[in-house]
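Q:
My hope is that you can spare some time for a protein that puzzles me. I hope you can help me see how the letters and the tokens relate. Thank you; the sequence and its tokens follow:
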Amino acid sequence: SALTLAAPTGLADYGVTDYKVDMAFEGSSTYLGFQGAVAYEVNDMISVAVGGRFISAKNTYVGHLRDIEVNTASGWLIPGDVMRGVADGATAMATVYTDSAAYFTTAAAVETDPTLKAIYEGAAAKYTAGAEQYTVGAATATATATYLDGKTADVEVDATESGTAFAVILGAHITPMDGLEIGIRYETQAALELETKNSDANAVYFVDGTKVNADMPAMLAVGASYAATPELTVSGSFNYYLNTAVNWDGREENVDNGMERGLGVEYAISDVLKASVGFLSSSMGITDQYQSDLSYSLNSSTVGFGVGYMISPVMELNVGASSTFYTEGQNATATETYNKSSTVFAVGLQFGL
């Protein structure tokens, strides 16, 4: 938790120099899409299509925070014990000051010398005020210890979020000239609500029954390919994501619309063998205010290549690989950075009748 990570700084005045915690977290996110469409050929140049996609989403979270301790001159302690030690010290000092105040009060009561009597009364008042300050300090430290006990208690998480959504797909295919193919696709926004399931009735995080909005944004995609020669085909694509129109429970205020730009080249080495290479640049439209431990998104560049081999007139084997290079991101306070890498290998077998 944020409090755990801040423990060394927040308790530094009390001799805390470090902390340790048994921490583990695993998560998964699976979005399954099932789609269908019908197409109609308007003429030799234009075809149109309409369809839909059903999305089934499921996120899982399993983890724990246990045995949080801070390092002090007395050894490793739970954070609450640090403040209880402070409270014990303040209580002891309050007792000393109270006893001193009582001593000087008694001395002043029996003293006949006016000068000494005034000195004793002043000392009694000083020690009485000091005892009150230490008493207040002890109460504050005790309350802080109770607060820390709650905030640094062991936390277990075993929860899922799931929901379904539907999007309409509209498409068009245009062939303005021989060798040039243009495809246009628009997908409507899919309203997605994820509901949490958690068997722990005392859960602090991922509370059972909680619902969050996680809409999938509408998108416009345009792609084109051109057969420059019988062997060489060049293609390009552009995807535009309407992120700012979604409902993400306010987090959409911290995003801009995103886009992807792609370029690919395919070359037929022979009648049965072809190779391709491609590049994709992604700008996700995410600001630092959006980023968090549980949900972050990074701009990236992807390079991929593939080989296709015709095993028979109706069967083609495809093998490919890609690597994605992400741009490091950070949260709004610049206290955390986010990065990752991705490499994909794929094998496909395609049949045609």
